[in-house]
Amino acid sequence: MTKKIVTVLMAVLCLGYSLTYAQQNEATVTLHLDNTTVKEVLRQMQQQTGKYFGYQSKDLEGLPRLQFECVNQPLNEALKQLLNSTGLTFIVKGNNVLIKKSTEKLAGTRQIEVTVTNIGTRAVSGRVTNGEQQGIPAVSILGLESRKMAFTNDNGEYFMQIPDDESMLSFSSVGFENRNVMLDAGKTYNVTLKERVGTLKQVEVVSTGYVNLPKERATGSFGVVTAKDLEKIPVPNVINRLEGQVPGVQLNLTESDNSFVYGNLRGDVEGNGSYAVTIRGISSMSTDVNRKPLLVIDGFPTEQDIRTINPADVEQITFLKDAAAASIWGARASAGVIVITTKKGKINDGAPHISFSAGVGFNGKPRLSSLPLMNAAQMIDYEQELVDKRMITAPRNTYPANQRPISQAVDWMFRLKRGEVSQAQEDSAFAVLKGRDSRQQVSKYLLRPASTQHYDLNINGGTSRHTYFVSGAYDRENTSAKRTAGERMTLSVNQDFKFFRNITLSANLRGSWFRYTSGDPGASVYQRSSSPLMPYDQLVDDNGNRVSYSRAYYSGRLDQLEAQGYMPWRMNYLDELDMLDNTINESNYAATLGLNIPIYKGLSFTTQYMVERSISNGKNFHSDSSYYTRDIVNAATSIGSDGKLVYGIPTGSIMELQDYSKNNYSLRGQLNFDRNFNGKHQVNALAGMEVRQTIENMNGDRYYGYNPQTQFSKPVDYVTPYTTVDGYQYNVMNGQSYSSQRRRYLSYLGNFSYTYLGKYTLSGSARYDDYNNFGLDKKFRARPFWSTGLAWALSKEDFMQSAAWLNNLTIRATYGINGNISTNALPYDQLYLTTYYQAPFQPYAGILTPANPALRWEQTGVYNIGVDYGMFNNRLNGSLEFYYKKGTDLFAFFPIDNTLGFDNLTRNTSTLNGKGIDLALGGSIIRKKDFEWSARLVFSYNTNKVTDARYNVTNSLLQSGGPGGPIKDLPTDYLMVFRYAGLDKNGSPLVIGGKGDTLNIYQSPKDISDLKNAGRLASPYFGSFTQTIRYKGLTLFVMATYKLGYVFQRPVPSEYPGRYGFLNYDYNNLVAQRWRKPGDEAFTNVPGLLGNGITGQVRYANADINVLPGDHIRLREVSLSYELPASLYRGLPFKNITFSGAARNLAILWARNSDGIDPDFPPTIRNLKLPPAASYNFSLNIGF
Amino acid sequence: MNRNNIFFLMMMAAALVTGCSKYTDIKTEGALTPGDYINFRYLMNNPDLERSADMPDMTSDDLQYKDTGMQQSLSNEYRNAYMWAAQYYDALAPDQDWRVLYATNYSCNLVIRDVMGSNGGTTQLKSGVLAEARVHRAYDYFMLVNIYGKQYNESTQATDLGVPLVLQPDVAEAAVRGTVKEAYDNILQDLQAAIPALPEKSSYNIYPSKAAAYAILAKVYLQMGRYRDAGGYADSALTIQHTLLNLPTLSSYPQRTDNPEIILSKTAGSSHAYSARQVLSDELLALYDPKDFRYSYFTQDYTQGSNVYRVYAKENVSGSNRNIGPSVPEMLLIKAECQARAGEAGNAMNTVNTLRAARFTAADYTPLSATSADDALVKVLQERRRELCFSCARWFDQKRLFTDSRFAKDITRTNLLTGESFTLSPGSNRYLFPIPQYNIQLNPALVQNPR
Asked: Residue A817 and residue A787: Cα distance in Å, rounded?
């Protein structure tokens, strides 16, 4: 009864996911065969039903040829018909059909109920391997009649007791074709399973970095990306290939024209602003704690960025998502763990396999037009108002030091005021300026379509005692900024040696070398600044001459100074570009040595040593004719009493060096135990300890008056001040810096899992971490982390065997503790130390953070419940997980009454709950020999809620809106906005308060209800939808990614020129719609230039009218690959040839905002990144 | 054999575990924690200790903005302060004077609590650092209580609200306002306690010396109206430090740290060299003789549009923030005022003339003389305005002097942008700066001043 209910329930559950399905639940056969053998009939039945038939060939010998007809007949009936009077009978068990000699009297039994008779048992054993002679762990072995079951160990070996009369063993494992083996008198059955072809190949092993576990026995939440998945997205940086692959993993990629030429290349900030990975949302509010996932490569945490990995070297990537999966990594795992396993050679693989690929990629033209900029006419109109309202004052009338540069248009305006030019002259000049659009020249001279190149070669192979994998690759990325580019070379060598008594030595070497050139301003010439490139400015004038601009001071003052002997003091964009010489050379090396010694029956000892080095040398050479150098030298030059120039900084080139290095090692000793007792009890355990040291060095230098020919530089006096061009006293900037920081970690760890009958798994792990932190006392820095979990392979239960359509159903539940400690909050005052060169040049200290005696660890309890399922021959498969995170003692950054000496304080007081759903759903819609179509949906939901009621709504939030500190019952990434009610008659914003009252800029919101919760800034719903269609050698892959349910803010003019008379030109085209005169409020919401102060601007910027929905679906990747039929190159030494073409970022398929803004790249004027242009990649892959 | 293996492994593991426990007992480089004497020394080297207030110059009658353009160029907080508005700062923005002075106070509190128990250093060195912290803290509270609290009044000081007296480096406590008496008591106590351990004169004027402690005591007693004490301490300071810059003979005005007139360098919170010009009020301008080198050195014409203003220009001349800490001229002027108030008109004039001689060329210099003690007092106070303009002294002087009917006067200012005007009468509540709204919203225990 129970069985039935479960079966029905499961069937109902699956209805929701039903796909077009060729195979019926109850297998039927339709055959019209004439003069055929029984064997052939069985073969065809197997083909039609997809079931696995097993028989002894000798049993079929001697049977007469026959005629066989049946139409849509159930298999049982058909078999009965076929085997009638052959002396054979059959058993159908799940997906297996056993044909055997009838031992009983012939009867009409459709299904023989097996009763195990007491006729003695015997032992069989053997090893199950894949095509490459590697053992397959966790293969289930089922005695067809006796229902005896056993599993292989991690080496693929099995041992089982079966009744003497057992006739067939069925070997099955996810990801492999089932295989039935008829038994004879033998004792050893070594079986090779064929990997299941097709795109739905299931992953069988997950890696925590310490241990590889069969997925079936893993209780935790693991997300796996295989080499095959990675291959589909031909981007040089692995991180880009991970997008949309694993539910719960959110990747924000913000480099639009490259993948590894990050804006931040070194140190802690490496990759910041280029990509961000969050695994199941945030669990800390503080930014001091570690929020980047830990990256583990081949078993060791690495300090190197993911860009150092050649994607072609990656065998598998495992995301550790819940506490049970990640807690083995302790405190460093609080933001999740990414475990990368690299490829190795295969045992007994024979001759070297060589694979070569080459590719090129091109991007579309940079989309400058996507920037919401004013045109020349609008800008001139804006400047006219600034001048009329005296927000820009004539530089001539002020102190020399205050003579800021002004634009061409403003210069005309002042000249007109002074009467130097006539209105008509100004008009005609403006007519020319208004006809220009500097974007055309910027596109032409400063930008280019980005492009990539890629070459990759690898060789692998192996004998029974030695395997090797050697690969080398070269990649180049040219970004859309003309002189900014990066090159990467990678080399890796992985080898395993087997010595006597099966001792394994593995030696892995990995190196990557980068060369970056940078410094090209690109589109950032439009970044908000006091002197951006104006829309009417030119880089090259109508006669083809390069145009120079005054940037330091008003041109009149520069004329004067140049006449007095100062170096030319104008900036020329194109000359600067030509002289650019900024390079970073980086070398990364990593080596791992590991020794595995089997000790006794499943017990082994592993010791591993890893050493890593990264050296990055940055050089910025500023030639003496570069603007950078001229500007610095001129600014430090004064006119002495004798009328001669006095140089505060030596003339000549300036060279800046910035070296950065990391030097790490880890040493680990580990005892492993993996053994199956009685075919029932699978025990897998490890215990180990690990020490780790990381050293970070930084070293900077700056040479003045440097001559690259002689390589001499001129000495400078850092102590005696010089007189600046404005008559002030300054000291020469000292570019020297050195720092070296050493951190040490000591950890003890253990992991245990026990599986009974291959169905029930119990797991646990614990880790104790200690590290040196500023000499902090042990009780503050060391803490144990633990987790536990359960898994139940429901589909292996007897009562589920009748549900033939169900291949896999496993339920998992885990709980564990993650923790984190702030690097800034300490139980005592933390000081910074600075050296001050100006007299009295004493080193001095300040207080970085005040003492926080109540400091504790952050603690987050993580619950996870998951179901893995595979149905209909695994044609429908995936997983569904729910998780809940309960954070306590979280660090939060509070504003405090600064009477106590500090504006903000990190306290250990907050609580935060998080929850979410991870869903992966894969379906093989059509699976034929020549035609396959599969689809996969990845869906993630993540949200969090502050549960701490002690937070007060801060006044700063009330006054300014926007994102703010934690508020009870709201997620951490809320956005508070003003209910905008347009402008008043003075052009000042009005907002509506909570009681419907209208507030002008002098009236403050008093309560949180005066603001409106506009939604979340991080997407709570995200994922991807992929389709793979294969016809013969041609494969089409399409991936769309989506983010839903969040908002972003429209870029708006953030600030009009400030009180100091400095101009921060804001280019935003909304400025053109600004309020100008009473009455304008009827049709514009953009505040007027005067009388609004910061309050007015902030209320406009954080107004509800400027909140846009971020929801969008992006066509991220379309790739087409064609594997040439072998017939075309028969006789040539090729094993395979594949052509592929891929297009990336083709389009935003749908966006909820109607402004045409890419929500991932809102054009903020402070940090200008163009939205991605479509890129196209072509590559050729040849295997030898 | 196998057993041996396991045994061996266990032995190795045990050895590792014991051997490794020390592995992590190293300190991270690049960051310091207090505990060592030297770190407290470093804390007291911090140039932030030189920072002080700025806004009292905006509220004082040294300054006057008579046209719309100049008022418009002021930031909101400056315009509010200029108009003695109910609040100066947006509730969003911390009051910089409050913030800077209390930030310094934390470092001082930390040093005062912990330096004597620190490792290394001699008791003498530690006492020296402790004394420096006390002087800085006393100075901070002198500024704070006079900006935000009531003018010292012998009879009501025990109940008049002053400022929060935070004397422990503890971010967990909630600050509450103390009385004026508590502030003054603590200031005097800190200074007296500091004196024995301080050097006569420090190597640089950013470090407190005995002279600095005496000078602050002189300022404090002057503000309290205890003229005998004020004069005495001014004298003590002058005994140690008395060099004046002879302005007419200077080739260039020295940097703050090289200026021999400065006894303890404290800078105004923000510099006005590049921003809102500080326009001299007609009253102040009228006090200057154009031959006075202070007129030509410290004030300049400033043209905006068609208007020419006389603005304070010391920051332009020296290329750095102005000093508002105690100086030799200030000590001379305190001494002179106390002499005048003691009826010693002649002595007072002599003291003032010592200063004036360094402000005029010999040809232009004429000594001042007084007809009576009252006349001497008036002349000393005029000299005080000429010498100490835009150093926050005038606002404090207005607070203490306007209660005296001889000097009391109303000041009326009009906001030309809105047309509102306000008259500040002697003893007005608006002689107290508002407690910053920013702090009150974070700490409702802070009581606002009546406005």
From this structure: 6
pTM, entire model = 0.77
Judge whether residue B72 has pLDDT over 60: yes
- First vs last C-alpha separation in chain A: 58
The Cα-based distances of B258 to A837, B203, B234, B238, B245 in angstroms read 15, 10, 21, 18, 11
The span from the CA of B294 to the CA of A314, in Å, is: 76
Q: How many other C-beta atoms lie within 10 A of the C-beta of residue A162?
A: 20
Dig out the tokens for A1117 from the structure: 């990747």
Only one residue has tokens 């739905």, namely A200
- State whether A901 and B169 contact (CB < 8 Å): yes
What is the 3-state composition of chain A as percent helix, strand, coil, each rounded to the nearest 5? 15, 45, 40
What is the rounded distance in angstroms from the CA atom of residue A895 to the CA atom of residue A901?
12
Confidence tier at A801 by pLDDT (50, 70, 90): confident
- Give the integer Cα–Cα distance in Å for A473 and A253: 23
Token pair recorded at residue A1180: 């050729």
**CB proximity list for B328: less than 8 A, separation 6 or greater:** B238, B241, B242, B243, B244, B260, B261, B262, B263
Q: Are strands A337-342 and A294-297 parallel, antiparallel or unpaired?
A: parallel
For A1059, which of B98, B106, B275 is closest by C-beta distance? B275
The reply to whether B106 touches chain A by the CB within 8 Å rule is yes
A727: alpha, beta or left, given left = phi > 0 and alpha = psi -120 to 50?
Answer: left
Those residues with Cβ within 8 angstroms of residue B155's Cβ, 6 or more apart along the chain or in another chain: none
In angstroms, what CA-CA distances link A1027 with A468, A1035, A1169? 34, 10, 30
Residues 1089-1108 (A) with a CB less than 8 A from some CB of B: 1090-1091, 1093-1095
R_g of chain A computed on alpha carbons: 35
| Residues A524, A442 contacting (CB under 8 angstroms) | no
What number of CA atoms fall less than 13 Å from residue A576's CA on the CB side? Answer: 23
- Distance, CA of B152 to CA of B219 (rounded, Å): 13
For chain B, give percent helix, strand, coil, nearest 5: 50, 10, 40
Ramachandran class of B369: left when φ > 0, alpha when ψ lies in -120 to 50, beta otherwise: beta
DSSP run (H or E) holding A1094:
helix A1093-1101
Asked if A745 is an interface residue toward chain B (Cβ–Cβ < 8 A), one would say: yes
Angle between helix axes B227-240 and B328-341 (nearest 10 degrees) is 140
State pLDDT tens for residues A397-448.
777 777 888 899 999 999 999 999 999 999 999 999 999 999 999 999 999 9
> Any CB–CB contact under 8 A between B276 and chain A?
yes
Q: Show the CA angle centred on residue A782, arms to residues A781 and A785, nearest 5°.
A: 125
Tell me if residue B220 falls in helix, strand or coil.
helix
Residues 6+ away with beta carbon under 8 Å from A1082: none
Tell me the C-alpha distance between A1056 and A528, whole Å: 11
- pLDDT grade for B190, boundaries at 50, 70 and 90: very high
Buried b / exposed e along A1130-1147 (16+ C-beta atoms within 10 A): eeeeeeebbebbbbbbbe
Q: How far apart are CA A507 and CA A517, in angstroms?
A: 34
Q: How far is B44 from chain A (nearest CA, A)?
A: 7
Q: Identify the CA nearest to A587 among candidates A609, A612, A610.
A: A612
Reading the block at residue A1169, the tokens are: 């990144």
Per the document, the length of chain B is: 451
pLDDT at A1165 (0 to 100): 60
Q: What is the 3-state secondary structure (H, E, C) of A849-904?
A: ECCCCCCCCEEEEEEEEEEEEEECCCCEEEEEEEEEEEEEEEEEEEECCHHHCCCE
d(CA A461, CA A470): 9
Token pair recorded at residue A1126:
């072998």
Q: How many CB atoms lie within 10 A of CB A1076?
A: 14
